[in-house]
Amino acid sequence: MPSNLTGSRGHEHVTSARSRVRPGSGVVAPDWHHGLMNIVLFHSTYGPRPAVQRAADRLRAAGHEVWTPDLFEGRTFDTVEEGTAYKEETGRDELLKRAVLAAAPYSERGLVYAGFSFGASVAQTLALGDERARGLLLLHGTSDIAENASVDELPVQLHVAEPDPFETDDWLTAWYLRMGRAGADVEVYRYAGAGHLYTDPDLPDYDEEAAEATWRVALGFLDSLEGDQPAR
What pTM did the predictor assign? Predict the structure, then answer.
């Protein structure tokens, strides 16, 4: 079962993010989502597997607008090694460029950035660079933090296995402290005994109890952001 190790917000109604929104032109695109959150959800090193679309459908069923960029140009992989080889061949800069271009058309809406493992590292990078970001939902992964990174109480929630060979305890402690220094409001949930990508039913890592607990908490996190609508 998860344990909320860090973070002071819990799931109360959040208002601090409003100060982060910068006024735009006041023009609203005809397809602006007037429901809950606008979420961009990035896939893992395995590529845009069915689990990503199932997760997006779960979020849409809760009323959210969700986009699932394909950073691998249609490629999916059966092993981490194959996916990692593709990432190295393509290059991190190119993958980040694809992510930025995919998110850019929606950024004025005030996005929640989210992702699985590698996709979580991409989501973190984009969220810390987007002054309009409404939140950051990290599933199974984190990333390095630039020394000059600065946000205004950006709500962040991380869900990760315990232990996790890719997210060690020492790393997570350092990451949490650095995110706090950057100004983020962070919660960390750990799931004892789960595999690294425990939310993907098609992988050996899958843990149904941990996955369902993760989605319950994550949906509560997204609900807590409802009140902060972007400037229009």
Answer: 0.85
